[in-house]
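A reminder before we start the practical. When you read a complex entry, don't treat the lines as separate problems. The point of joint prediction is that each chain is placed relative to the others, so the output describes one connected object in space. Small molecules and nucleic acid strands, if listed, are placed in the same frame. In the example below there are two entries. Take a minute to note the order of the lines before looking further.
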Amino acid sequence: MASENGTLTSGEYIRHHLTNLTYGQNPDGSWSFAENAEQATAMGFWAINVDTMFWSFFLGIVFCWLFRRVAKKAEAGVPSRGVAAIEFIVEFVDTSVRETFHGTSKLIAPLALTLFVWILLMNTMDLIPVDIIPSLGMLMGIEFQKVVPTTDVNATMGMALAVFILIIFFSIKIKGVGGFMGELTGQPFAADKLVWKIIFAPINLVLELVGLIAKPVSLGLRLFGNLYAGELIFILIAMLGLYQLPLHFGWAVFHLLIVLLQAYIFMMLTIVYLSMAHEKH
Amino acid sequence: MNINMTIIGQIIAMIVFVAFCMKYIWPPIITALDERRAKIAEGLAATDEAAKALELANVEATSITDNARGQASEIIEAGNQRGIQILSQAKDEAVAERERQVTAADAEIQQSANHARETLRQSVATLAVLGAEKLIKKEIDPKTHEQLLEKLIAEI
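Here is the predicted structure of the whole assembly.
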């Protein structure tokens, strides 16, 4: 977002970096790319962050390509180094799933692997210097570019929402509608007499619903918050002139930890939530 | 930072990738890993078994060698005994044979000597008779001479 005289204030610089490339329907009914953050907000729900979609899809393809190559080559013999590295990740996820989830499900392990590697790749985009890709985009005439999909709340909440849907689906599949409702209304205040049960039910329902909804919200916002803050600090450091070089390095080292840890936490919590959905009380 | 359709796009993308992973990535890799694990377990078990078999074979080999050694020394011992026995028997036989031959030779010598003596005696007697006859032809008294001759023969 170049200002009128061609220079950027630091506020504009930051805001420019934190604005998605949004394509959507303007209030007057026409479809176009948003020229600034206000216009993107005005578009409401019927808009799509093209950069988030592009990068997350691109990185998902990278994940599929990388692992599919190994899956084709995988055999019981001696693995090559590349195959062994990928198998190490698979084994790691498999162990995590086995330790936490004791039921049998063909979905949970691949889901955990996909989420872990995909989020890891998306988070890793944060380590690319903040100005490189947006500058290239500007040269090609693309005004905004946020290269880290996980700094877009839509991406993280989208994944969290998918997990939430799975939680509901498995809860109902395993326990039945009645069982699931019983779980929502029968805790944490339990009683033997019917009268008390009826009295406690609404209280329990409110408490349990809050707990249930807190799961996807915390899942999505934790990832988003960590990565957004990390990205913001990279942007702030980038405005410091020459001093930014050692600072960038230092923050990147810290951020490596966050990148890996947040991907792991997202995967682990997904497994935990889904195994809770599988458990009967 | 507004919630918009991206959230749905992200859900769709996620479904696509998870489905792909579920169908084409997870099963082959996990199968390969399990197979490899089974193979390694098999190999380790085989190694253990082979080590046990080797130990057994070693024990057996030792016992066989010990046995053979014992048998060999027994055979050598028996051979020695037999050799000594044969030697002493041969010596005994040889001694006996020598004795027998010596005795036989002695007897023969004795016999020959007796025979010679007898022959000699006969010859002397004949000679004496002949001599006597010649003397008698020239004559004197035969009776006296006979007495004399007999005396002579007895003396021989």
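Discuss with your neighbour: Chain B touches chain A at residues 1-11, 13-18, 20-22, 24-26, 28-33, 35-36, 38-39 (CB under 8 Å). What might explain this?
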